[in-house]
Amino acid sequence: MVIPADQPFQVRSEQTSPAPELVCRILVVDDDPALRQSLPRALARNGRKFSESDTVAGAIALLEREPFDLVLLDYRLPDGTGLAVLDWLAQHQREEAVIMISGEDALDAAIGALRGGADDYLRKPYHVAQLQRAVESALHKAALERANRAMSQRLRTSERLHRYLVESSPDLIFTLDAEGRFSYLNPRVKALLGYDRNVLMRRPFTTLVMPEDVDRIATLLYAPVAGPGESFHVELRLRRNRELLAGDSPEWITVALTGIPMPAREDGRRGGGLYGVARDISERKRAEEIISFQAYHDQLTRLPNRVLFKDRLELAIAQAQRRTGALAVMFIDVDRFKLVNDTFGHAEGDMLLRGIAARLAGTLRRGDTLARLGGDEFTVLLPDINGPQDAEVIARKILDSLSAPFPLSHGDFRATASIGIALFPRDGDGAEDLTRHADIAMYQVKRSGKNGFRFFDIALNSHYRERIVLENDLRTALERREFELHYQPQISLTQHRVVGMEALLRWNHPNLGLVSPATFIPVAEEMGLIGDISRWVLEEACGQLARWREAGHNDLRMSLNLSPHDFDSQDVVTMVTECVERHRLPPSQLELEITESMMMQDAAGVAAKVRGLREAGLSVAIDDFGTGYSALAYLQKFPVSTLKIDRSFVRELEGPNTNPIISAITGIARGFGLQLIAEGVERSEQAETLRTLGCDVMQGFLYARPAPAAEATAWLYDAPDASALH
Q: Where exactly are the transmembrane stretches of this chain (predicted)?
């Protein structure tokens, strides 16, 4: 069938093979709309995608946007000839196959198209089958060319990569011919052996082998081939050209040689040559020695580390058990070491640790072991001691050795240490137990003031076991709703009523009953749980105040304590103000208590947060005022609203002139216009003296002990005297 060039056509597609995985893109460029529509139908196959254009410019624009596999290109176009598209493809080194379709009778058009890079030329009119064959042929040819180019590129890349790897290898790589002579050497030979590779070419490999190893390598080189892919591995010594190597180079080096035979001769011997790789294992052996040292020693002080210390301790325990002897383990922690790191940097800290290690080592006997566990922690093994007195003598020598200052770049530093001692067999019969018990004893020294030593006793172990149980229970106390608030009233003597409540946290432990905050709050702070607990206290206290206000007690003030760790958080002000807003409380009715020590330790950071709380309308009190001998300058920096007289001053109060500190505190409160509250009032004479000194609001056992909310609610309706509230 012949299809005229100006008539559209429709044919049924032939049966094709399953759809290819890749999409074949075909661009039809013709100014005849009918042909642009009919050609895709005639050439349709699974995986083929067609685009079209009616001008040279449009075709080039499409080609710039994406590549095509085939272009069906009309010769005559409104803005030029298809030769312009061929020229563009050639200039841009494109790989599209092109079939030129034209109604031109002149032979020059076909010659120009083929010279321009067209893969085929069809004249209009043409058979559909003719077009389909031309398209299939062009696509097949293009696919073969692409595959060939890809394969050639892979081969070139592989060859370059292989050559680069061989030439750049840190190993000596070489090939031997059938006579055992060098046919190739990589540049590594000069650095490794001191020979230029050109000098060694065509020389026998055995000329580089030390005489003692020649027979062994010759046997391997010419032994019968066991099978394809066989290789051998051997260590041998190779001569070095010491004249061309710098320094005191050894006469020979030991290498690990891997030999891979090339195709063998007909007689089955290694006559085809050899591919060899030789690695200098002297570096590996040195590295193994370094790794072994690092595995058992601390890199900073060069002392034994935890692993080596444990090995030596276990050996010493075994020997002591056989001889029924004794030994001691010391756990040493440098006091205030973090101060050096934080102030002068880690380089100065490392210098100090090396100096301390040297002094500790100087106090020990031959046969003792000093190890560094990490950070500022050291352990000492004292084998063959007669009793605790021997360990005590060495502990005192260690403390004395640290008395002289350590010279650092920024000045002298006087170091002290806390030492815990555990004895075998009294304090344990295993390495883990002895080390752990010495550690426990050391921490007790830390808590007792540092710079000393202490022997382990069983009571310490019991204490630490209780501490671990307490920590585990504390982690789930919030989830189990074991916390509760008790409230203690604050009484105004002039108003004869309760003006405030202090919320006090209690832990209702399922087994231990009510646990004092003094017991679990420090643990919660160390564990990082205090933030969640403080949020719970704030929410619970604000909720209770809101309920009391609904009952008509609108001028009641709620006071509660925040942990110093709460003020480390940047959002403490937001946390408090959002809680107050959520419960619709007047901010002035909530008073937050901070400690005097917290105020003095971080004046700038805490002052900013206190200022934010005060600007939000909340009251802020300094709890236990006077115990830290606060400077008046801090009261100027901190916009607090209330001072609380500590119970330790109230306890010793016997008359109006017996405690000048209280007189001073009342004067300070008046001078700064601050409210004043006395806590810990237990006797009526204390209350009378405080009233005489100008303190009106008080709290203590004289009026009421802390109690749950239900009992505290009853106080709001009772008279504020001891008989009514106690």
A: none
Token pair for residue 433?
A: 């137990």
Residue 72 near residue 48 (C-beta atoms within 8 A)? no
The secondary structure element, H or E, covering residue 439 is: helix 431-447
Long-range CB contacts (within 8 A, 24+) of 248-255: 249/194, 252/210, 253/192, 253/193, 253/280, 253/282, 254/280, 254/281, 254/282, 255/172, 255/279, 255/280, 255/281
Domain 482-725 has CATH 3.20.20.450: yes
Q: Where are the domains of the chain?
A: 24-150, 169-288, 297-456, 482-725
Rounded-to-10 torsion of CA 592, 597, 603, 606? -30
Q: Residue 121 and residue 503: Cα distance in Å, rounded? A: 98
Angle, vertex CA 533, rays to CA 531 and CA 537, nearest 5: 115
CA atoms within a 13 Å half-sphere pointing along the CA-CB vector of 168: 6
Measured CA to CA, the distance from residue 70 to residue 684 in angstroms comes to 108
Q: 54 to each of 28, 39, 112, 227, 234, how far by Cα in Å?
A: 8, 13, 21, 67, 73
From the number of C-beta atoms within 10 Å of its C-beta (0-12, 13-18, 19+), residue 238 rates as buried
Identify the CA nearest to 124 among candidates 21, 16, 30.
30
Name the burial class of residue 4, with classes exposed (0-12), middle (13-18) and buried (19+) by CB atoms within 10 angstroms of its CB.
Answer: exposed
Which class is 297-456 in CATH? alpha beta
As a whole number of angstroms, the distance between CA 506 and CA 517 comes to: 6
Which pLDDT belongs to residue 459? 67
Give the other-Cβ count within 10 Å of 543's Cβ: 15
Q: Which CATH class is domain 24-150?
A: alpha beta
* Residue 633 pLDDT greater than 90, yes or no: no
Task: Read off the pLDDT band of 600 (50, 70, 90).
Answer: low
Q: What are phi and psi of 277, to 5 degrees?
A: -130, 120
The residues near 34 (Cβ < 8 Å, ≥ 6 apart) are 6, 7, 8
Give burial (CB, 10 Å; 0-12/13-18/19+) of 700. buried
| 169-288, CATH topology level | Beta-Lactamase (3.30.450)
Read off the pTM: 0.46
The two three-digit tokens of residue 2, written as one number: 């012949």
Provide the Cα torsion 553, 555, 556, 558; round to 10°.
130
Identify the CA nearest to 483 among candidates 505, 464, 468: 505
Closest CA to 529 of 577, 476, 581: 476
